[in-house]
Amino acid sequence: MTPEGGPFPPHSGEDLPDGMGELPKGRLLLGYQQAVHQARSIPGLLFIEKSRRIGLTWGMAAYCTLRAARSRAAGGRSQLYISYALDMTREFIDACAMWAKAFGLAAESPEEFLFEDQDPDTGDTKHIKAFRIDFASGFSIRALSSAPRSLRGKQGDVLIDEAAFVGSLEELLDAAIALTIWGGDVTVVSTHFGVDNPFNAEIQKIRAGDRLGRVMTITFDDALAGGLYERICLVSRQEATDEGKAAFRARIYGMYGAGSAQELDVVPARSGGAWLAYDQIERAEDPAALVRRLSFDNAFALQPDHIRTAEVSDWLDSQLRPVLADLDIRAGYGVGIDFARTSDLSVIWLTREEPDRSWRTPLVIEMRNVPFVEQETVAKYVLRRIRRWVTGIDANG
Questions:
Q1: Which of 31, 71, 166, 173 would disulfide-bridge 226, Cβ 3.0–4.6 Å?
Q2: Is-contact 300 312, C-beta < 8 A?
């Protein structure tokens, strides 16, 4: 049977795990699992930050099965699943096969296949094991390698599972988004693995409006409110009680200890090894800070000295002179300078000491593709006009 309508077609229940067949129709998935189905049905990029072990991958296998089994006219599409471990991909395909049987959908048995993965730098080719289920609709579910190249030549919806633990998430995400040009959605799911992890960084981009997408959060308490404890009791043949639920929650939180904030409450932990963690930087951001940008094309460096000098002088007079004239010359300033000798971006960052001993940023200057002599001209122009300052310059500068 190919599902054309509602999200939960009839099922026999006999192919579901122990206890699941006793559920009434329409209750196979818990509330938050159904919410993910609804969220995935909306086109675009979806990030889901979640607690551990709440059965979300199992629920998403149901969505992928239903979507791949639909006809093209009903919105069917192939589903491409990616994770960082082979056993996870195998488990996901097995879950999809279970759902196909439970829903009574026409599908072939899961099979392993090999695809060639050629390194574009070395030209070396290796064969990578993957898994596939083909449906009568003409679409399929494929569990692939986490290498961005594995999406080459594919089409369909992409699901990246435990994305915080895959290598090169940025490259993988770029490859996945490319598939949306011809139709297809991208869903990125994971527990957190530190504030500096690319998974959290991408979520912050969406929340800041720097990337178009949606973020969905599912904590352990959300899952408990949605029936996770009762479902566990059903599968394990235990009686569900309010006292048992409270004891279950306390036991799980107690075993995680300090790690419960990240693992259960979906609050990314501060990563070690960085001078400033991502959340510290985020809290210190000041949208009101003034930024002035100077950039040239490659041909500018080949212009005669007097032309380069004239163009930079015009920019200084029009863009920097009014800003510097408004600064309080009685205040003390810190000036951080990162000169680009071998790359094309330089930054001059001013901080001003406030009466309450705090520091604020009145001005940031970004210079892209500006020759070194002109960078030096801009720096001297600033330093001569703020009088009281201390500065730090990077080693190469």
A1: 31
A2: no
